[in-house]
């Protein structure tokens, strides 16, 4: 069941759920599954909608870790240029299999219990599912493969939603423009405020 939420947090939940509904990440549901949601503040004074999936994770087979740690940047020559990119909302670019969607349902209570709660489920990979990081690593690796082939002279590392690109005579603006175009074609977006 859904945990009680203070009025302020409930209003934020309603707003964030409406946003997710509008962009197609969730749909109305009649699923028998139901796990709690909550919100936490982000560093930029916005809020993040989180789904407590511990009960779902407990009955799910683990895919394990594909990348047990961070790649070491020590293999990058000292004078090479480095570009660091953060992908935005990358979890939400991977669709859930139709048979699994109902397991990721949650309910949004009404204000003061004025009406029945509304239930939704995710149609894209939710944050908090124990296999989401592994699935994302696989997906990002697939999407970066054509870029690695096109620029074999570059070192391209990725770990979760971060991509590090290094090159001897790399022109970061050209690489960033090309990467932006390629990733956009694949449904991925770069967080411009986090490019270094």
TrEMBL record:
Which positions are tagged coiled coil?
none
Q: What class of enzyme is it?
A: hydrolase
**Annotated Pfam families:** RVT_1 (PF00078)
Keyword annotations: Endonuclease, Hydrolase, Nuclease, Nucleotidyltransferase, RNA-directed DNA polymerase, Transferase
Reverse transcriptase domain span: 21-196
Under InterPro entries, the record lists: DNA/RNA_pol_sf, Rev_trsase/Diguanyl_cyclase, RT_dom
Q: What is its EC number?
A: 3.1.26.4
Q: Which GO terms describe its molecular function?
A: RNA stem-loop binding; RNA-directed DNA polymerase activity; RNA-DNA hybrid ribonuclease activity
Record family assignment? Belongs to the beta type-B retroviral polymerase family. HERV class-II K(HML-2) pol subfamily.
Q: What's this protein's name?
A: ribonuclease H
What organism does the UniProt record list as the source? Answer: Ciccaba nigrolineata
């Amino acid at each position: 069941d859904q945990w009680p939420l203070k009025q302020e947090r409930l209003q934020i939940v309603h707003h964030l759920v409406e946003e997710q509904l509008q962009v197609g990440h969730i749909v109305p549901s009649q699923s028998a599954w139901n796990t709690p949601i909550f919100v936490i503040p982000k560093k930029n004074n916005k809020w993040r909608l989180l789904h407590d999936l511990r009960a779902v994770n407990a009955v799910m087979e683990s895919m394990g870790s594909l990348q047990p740690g961070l790649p070491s940047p020590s293999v990058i020559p000292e004078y090479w240029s480095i570009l660091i990119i953060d992908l935005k909302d990358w979890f939400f670019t991977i669709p859930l299999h139709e048979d699994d969607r109902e397991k990721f349902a949650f309910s949004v209570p009404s204000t003061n219990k004025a009406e029945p709660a509304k239930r939704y489920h995710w149609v894209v990979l939710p944050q908090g599912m124990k296999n989401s990081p592994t699935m994302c690593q696989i997906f990002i690796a697939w999407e970066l493969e054509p870029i690695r082939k096109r620029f074999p002279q570059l070192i391209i590392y990725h770990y979760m939603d971060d991509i590090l690109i290094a090159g001897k005579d790399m022109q970061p603006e050209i690489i960033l423009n090309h990467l932006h175009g390629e990733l956009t074609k694949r449904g991925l977006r770069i967080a411009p405020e986090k490019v270094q």
